[in-house]
Amino acid sequence: MLHARNERAPLPPARPEKPTAKTPPTSAPPSVREGGAPGAKQRDPFFDNAKYLTILLVGMGHAWQPLQDDSRTVEALYLAVYAFHMPAFIVISGYLSRTFTGRPHQIRRLITGIAVPYLVFETLYTLFMRWADNPDREFSLQRPGFALWFLVALFVWRMTAPFWHRLRWPVPVALAVGLCASVTESISGDFNLMRVLQYLPFFVLGLQLRPRHFEMLKDRRLRLLSVPLLLATAVFSYWAVPRMNQAWLLHDRPAAEMGVPSWVGAVMYLALFGCALVLTAAFLTLVPRRHMWFTALGAGTLYAYLLHVYPIKLSREFDWYDMAWVDHPASRVVVTLLAVVMMTALCSGPVQRAFRFVMEPKMSWFFREDPVEQARARSGAHGGGEQPDRGQDGRERERRRETVSAGR
């Protein structure tokens, strides 16, 4: 009896280990992306899909612009698209910039990926317009050409990202900045500052979003509501065509230039901001979350954004829209399809490889060596070669450290 009392109870059987965030449920190592090589950084297909579909809307909107005078339907579609396509693109840009803290390699990417392309393409655009329209057109790097304002805005927004991370209420503050800009007549036209400030809240909102917010958009009920909502927006836009100045949607001028009192301009700005958020959410609920045939094209949207400027301007400067075949309802469908094909081609891998020397130059000669990166390289060399890839867990830990250092 005593012996039985002192005998230890047998240990319970080991429980099977549950997959956690630190233990991937699959046998594949976390550093291997689907269809990729070990160590490749994993991309979320949802955001690449969203970027591709948004850049299609950009190209379609620019292609529709000359058709508006002859078709109320086209103008209604133009209004509906312009109500949310740039806000959606900017929110995604802000979300993808949320780890920007001003570290040396991030500053290099900012300069080589945004500042240098702006200088190059603004110069090319000036030369192009001299050839196509005005031989006396002056160089004015402070006056962004057609669509190039977005590079200026993205540079400014990303540089200020650490500042927004430090604030307790970043989105209301950014919204107040945009609201004040919308009623201020004295803001300079240099670098399209009016647009930079009025679109700022969308970028700051993107900075504050987290993966769980996008997970909420998976709800099937929201997806079912999004289709009638977008259709209702198109119907409302058709009604609004003769009643609303579409310049409100461009966010490039103050209320006084729109011929209304400041308080009306402020109310309109807030209303458009709310509408843009609702429509952006509706649009994102419809974006596929799995790998699609166009997912890889999402990495080339900035190429398409900058390069589509020239076909669009050629079509206007050389009066392609005055050709007889364009003045027909079916031709507007053809123009739309041509815009889709053009933007898709400009996002493609061959185009990216051909223009990478301009869009993503290395420019190692331009920057000082980062002591931290040099130390890491030396430690990797002393450790017997290349350091092992940290995988998804390591990248997540680094992202958390960046977030903490940014004051979150």
Automatic annotation (TrEMBL):
Keyword Ribonucleoprotein: no
Gene Ontology MF annotations: acyltransferase activity
InterPro entries reported for this sequence: Acyl_transf_3_dom, Nod_factor_acetyltransferase
Biased composition (Basic and acidic residues): 387-408
Domain Acyltransferase: 45-347
Compositional bias segments (type: Low complexity): 21-31
Record-annotated membrane-spanning stretches: 76-97, 109-128, 140-157, 222-241, 261-286, 293-310, 330-351
Keywords per UniProt: Acyltransferase, Membrane, Transferase, Transmembrane, Transmembrane helix
Secretion signal, residue range per the UniProt entry: none
Spans annotated as Disordered: 1-45, 374-408
Protein name: Acyltransferase family protein
Organism: Streptomyces hazeniae
